């Protein structure tokens, strides 16, 4: 079991303070701006929370729980469901969510799940934070599930999903077709934030065209949030026409986009005002 008495990293995000046990200082290592870690994502969540004071927040690929702990501290009407397949990271995540509950004794912030969400529900082979081939040295097998299947166990009402799964984003989306389409009773998906990785990292045969087509086919409005790691105010640009064409063609990605990922926001019409 992880020693949760180890030093905590303390964060202050737009006036919200919370603590996190973060082995390896992963947040610090992936912070590229003086504005903090992915500042535009917090702006997006703030703007969505203004319209949805009560919601379930699913963090797919939660690692140690930065966003679950931020959400628990910042949005008292939101409940967290956090998913992390790596057993070591999951142990830390679960401890951080328990600590968040202790910090907010009047309510239970949510749950952690050691699962690899995918398109079949099958168990998958992992190494670190990535799906790998079964014959990969040091790979571990982790339990899998389709989002559409587990969503039936989520609280009824508005749902916000964040996905950061290091190239498996298309695999996760392919397992949540009914949720995206709004056809699951009681589940009202309102927004999906998807960190999109470089083409060479994608797994499962789901390319950028397939990802956007799945979101558009579900009737969602699809935007790219430019410079999400470097700006305090989110700037969503509709992914249509030439902008869409340049997004789906990996040959047109800049080196900065390859190195630092890109961010999609897909929303049910009327949920978000750019």
From TrEMBL:
The highest taxon in the source lineage is Bacteria
Ranges for domain Methyltransferase FkbM come to 59-218
Q: Which SUPFAM superfamilies does the entry mention?
A: S-adenosyl-L-methionine-dependent methyltransferases
The record's listing under Gene3D superfamilies reads: Vaccinia Virus protein VP39
Q: What Pfam families would the database entry show?
A: Methyltransf_21
InterPro entries attached to this UniProt entry: FkbM_mtfrase, SAM-dependent_MTase, SAM-dependent_MTases_sf
What PANTHER family is this protein classified in? METHYLTRANSFERASE, FKBM FAMILY PROTEIN, SLL1173 PROTEIN
Which protein is depicted?
Methyltransferase FkbM domain-containing protein
Naturally occurring in which organism (per UniProt): Tistrella mobilis
Q: Lineage of the source organism? A: Bacteria, Pseudomonadati, Pseudomonadota, Alphaproteobacteria, Geminicoccales
